[in-house]
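ARCHIVE CARD
CATEGORY: sequence design from structure
SOURCE FIELD: tokenized fold
FIELD CONTENT:
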């Protein structure tokens, strides 16, 4: 297009401003989670490496799963000895 209206220029400027604001909010949220911010580069957003520390709920679920598995193995061993 050879020309742009003032309204089109306004919308493009508003779009750029909102993109910057969204990126800032995203990076603030990632920082609260202990993750590195997303860098803007020519290739686009870079993947974010997650923390290796599990959350409390992940840890609790793992403990429950292991307890159930141990109980099932014990029950299976007891039923084999009874036969």
């Amino acid at each position: 297009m050879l020309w742009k209206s003032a309204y089109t220029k306004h919308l493009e400027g508003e779009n750029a401003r909102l993109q910057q604001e969204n990126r800032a909010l995203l990076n603030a949220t990632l920082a609260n989670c202990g993750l590195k911010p997303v860098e803007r580069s020519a290739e686009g957003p870079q993947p974010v490496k997650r923390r290796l520390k599990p959350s409390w709920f992940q840890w609790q679920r793992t403990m429950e799963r292991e307890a159930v598995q141990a109980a099932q193995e014990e029950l299976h061993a007891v039923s084999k000895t009874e036969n």
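CARD ANNOTATION: The CA atoms of residues 75 and 81 lie 10 Å apart. The chain has a mean pLDDT of 82.
SHELF: design records, drawer C
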